[in-house]
Amino acid sequence: MTYDYIQLDRNSGVPLYRQLYLNIRTAVESGGLKENDRLPSVRRLSDDLHLSCTTVESAYQQLCVEGYIHSSPHRGYFALDARREGPARRTVPPVFHRTVSPEVRYNFGTDCVDIGHTDIKIWRRNVRSALNRENVLCSYGEHQGEIELREALSSYSFGTRGVIATPEQIVIGAGTQPLLSILCGLMERRRSVAMEEPGFPQAEQVFSDYGISVLKLPGDSSGISMDALEKSGARLAYINPSNRICTGSSIPVSRRTELLRWAHRSGGIIIEDDYNGELRYRARPVPAMQGIAGGRGVVYLGSFSKLLLPSVRIGYMVLTPELLKEYLPRAANYNQTASKVEQLALAEYIRSGQMERHLRRLRKLYGAKSERLIKAMKNAFGGKIDILLEETPLTLILTVHTEKNADGLCRLAMKNGVRVQKTEDGKIRLGFAGIPIGDIEDAVQCLKSAWSTAFK
Description:
Aspartate Aminotransferase, domain 2; Aspartate Aminotransferase, domain 1; 17 strands; 7-stranded mixed β-sheet
């Protein structure tokens, strides 16, 4: 018997049973093997192709499971109708070519931290300690997040940000977006959310996915315009009080109080995204709005990407008492997105006092970095750039006075081994969390050289 539809390559890295399965599957899908066509017996095919019976049986079994052929007792194997429209599938795995990125000598990206100033040794020790708790690791863990971490966060968030929360009010997740997804599910009667221009794309995407309209409102010198908020009719406001994207400043207490009055008067809810709120280093951090409000009318969001490591994706959300009542009956239906091991490691890191000690060190470090970078940029570029410091995001926003657009400036920098990023409104963003403080002057000189043609 001839088997024109079967082509085996014994030198291939693909197992023979897999090759046989793929060849027969393609023949069925293309119509080469029609419905009720009989296939050779296992022994016959193994003899003709010089294969073991186990190889043929494995291929036939997989084809039966997937519905390409069926086995009839005492009669053999027969093809089923599983024809596909269009070209047949590939019978060999595709070859992937990884794109090689240019070498980065100086990284001003916002997605990294300086490895020389992380608590990596202590963090590794805490992770090992969590891994040694074998009885704890043999279960999925708590849907709301590990109670050990929620208890630690209840004390930590009060001490550093003045947040008022019981462990029961705290929900753990793998960053802000998964937590916002849970929150959106509780916002059944609020179908629009207000935020100050220019907005926050990551949060906007989640709101859009849940059918919640995003209303971008103008701001004034103190924050989102209260008149615009009142007129919008929104009963949900997304606020980043520690860092306004337009100005880099924090929202003053007077405007925070106005926002809290709005929430109380209108029955609205404020989502307080306190990204890096505890990392303010030029002055003492302003207490969280959630604490000022006594835990009412404000949902608090916190995270640790710049405090620990960006790869440790753990954030937390503090629900209001009213939203907690809605959340608890459905909590078991949400899978926990944060690693249980990392949750337990973080709980120990906070309980031992290491987090607060590390926070104090980082405040001094980032204060020194920001001053050094601003000075170096002014010395190198003078009036060719305007600089805005965004303190808690640990970035400088540059307005570069040149005809080159932001994309062109990023490409020029990358050719010289300097990674910078563009903002949504076409400016240049320099993150200084990841660059070693001793490299700042050399990095700026390298950037100056890269942009020299842009100012001609």
